[in-house]
Design a protein that fits this description.
Layout lengths: L3 E5 L4 H12 L3 E8 L14 H11 L3 E5 L1 H17 L6 H20 L4 E3 L4 E4 L6 E4 L16 H5 L1 E2 L7 H10 L30 E4 L5 E5 L22 E6 L4 E5 L5 E12 L9 E6 L7 E8 L2 E11 L6 E6 L2 E12 L21
Parallel strand pairs: 1-2, 1-4, 2-3, 4-7, 8-11
Antiparallel strand pairs: 5-6, 8-9, 10-11, 12-15, 12-17, 13-14, 13-16, 14-15, 16-17
Helix pairs in contact: 1-2, 1-6, 3-4
Length: about 375
């Protein structure tokens, strides 16, 4: 009897081809769409569509179901993200969604149907050699999504399949196009799925406040902290002889801190809410590569962990380290784990802005 697998089907090309590859490999494939939105509204969103998911299932000849997950999505992802934005952070809702909603609910629905394996269209890979499961980067460096999956556990990864992780995005789309699948021609979603008009539209009550420089001098007024993020240059409404960038958001003063581009450099960071795929961190202070945004390259660093807090010292300065984003720790292609950035550490001798200079404890070796 063929192994059964429940595929999270959004209707996009990656999840459609994931289901296709599993079917061709001899699995008994069942498609399931976790609908994260109101059951009374339109059945499509920027990231997914029940109609296109159902069409993909028909084209592949596999059964398809829809499960409502809007309440969980709202409580576990949307509301915490909006609270973080109000508090002057720039959270990473996609990492939270994958950890707390998509995989947990997909596995729950699989168990209800007596199905052992689950699969998604993420560009990532798993290696099961040696009795443990390692999460690896996807083959396509431009589409690798392992950064968003650092919160998965050994138990979840043992049951997870990522069929498109061994392919480039171009290969995935070409395969779908060669077979005449409708998903091949669909545009890829780029925006945060629950905020198509921007986060600020969801927190219109965010109060205005001062824009200050690194010395605390007031230069202007901002429209509310959710309108801004570290590294931003446009939309500040300031006149200055040199370009100014958002260096930090300071919720205690409800202030946007600005400075020259050089002020965006960080020598390290502090991360909290840690998760380790092995169940715990490597022993002692350990070397690895740290990625601080989805589109940022991982950089060599030293890491020291005490309890649920990690101190990171970069081998070279890193630009725009942003509280609320994920810091993900890699050893080569392998994801060791990650956490939420609490603060960035400015280089020695530079004035700190907002929370950037308040890590709460010395960095590794300090």
């Amino acid at each position: 009897m063929a192994d059964r697998v429940l595929v999270g089907l959004s209707g996009g090309v990656d999840s459609t081809v994931a289901a296709l590859l599993l079917r061709e490999a001899g699995y008994e494939v069942h498609g399931l769409t976790l609908w994260l939105w109101s059951p009374d509204g339109p059945w499509e969103n920027l990231c997914c569509s029940v109609d296109t998911a159902a069409l993909a299932a028909r084209e592949l000849g596999i059964p398809h179901e829809v499960v409502q997950a809007g309440a969980e999505f709202r409580a576990l992802v949307v509301e915490p993200a909006l609270a973080a934005y109000r508090a002057g952070q720039t959270p990473n809702p996609c990492a939270v969604c994958n950890r707390d909603v998509r995989f947990k609910l997909l596995l729950r629905e699989a168990e209800r149907r007596g199905i052992e394996l689950v699969a998604t269209g993420h560009h990532a890979r798993v290696d099961r050699a040696g009795g443990r499961v390692r999460l690896l980067r996807g083959r396509d460096p431009g589409k690798d999504q392992s950064y968003f999956l650092y919160g998965l556990s050994q138990g979840e990864l043992r049951r997870a399949l990522f069929p498109v992780g061994e392919k480039t995005k171009g290969e995935v789309r070409a395969l779908a196009r060669a077979l005449g699948l409708t998903a091949a021609e669909l545009r890829e979603s780029q925006d945060l799925c629950f905020a198509p008009e921007g986060i600020a539209a969801l927190v219109p009550d965010a109060p205005p406040g001062p824009i200050v420089d690194l010395r605390g001098r007031v230069l202007g007024e901002h429209r509310g902290l959710p309108h801004y993020t570290v590294g931003q240059r446009r939309g500040l409404g300031l006149s200055s002889p040199e370009p100014l960038y958002v260096v930090a958001l300071d919720p205690e003063r409800n202030a946007v801190v600005v400075g020259p581009e050089s002020a965006l450099s960080a020598s390290g960071l502090v991360a909290e809410d840690l998760h380790w795929i092995e169940g715990g961190p490597p022993a002692g202070e350990f070397p690895c590569q740290v990625q601080v945004r989805y589109r940022s390259p991982a950089v060599p660093a030293g890491v020291r962990v005490e309890g649920d807090r990690a101190w990171v010292r970069f081998a070279r300065p890193v630009r725009a380290v942003t509280p609320g984003q994920a810091a993900v720790f890699y050893r080569g292609e392998e994801v060791l784990g990650g956490g939420v950035i609490r603060s960035a550490t400015p280089p020695p001798g530079r004035p700190s802005g907002g929370d950037r200079g308040r890590p709460g404890a010395p960095p590794p070796g300090g």
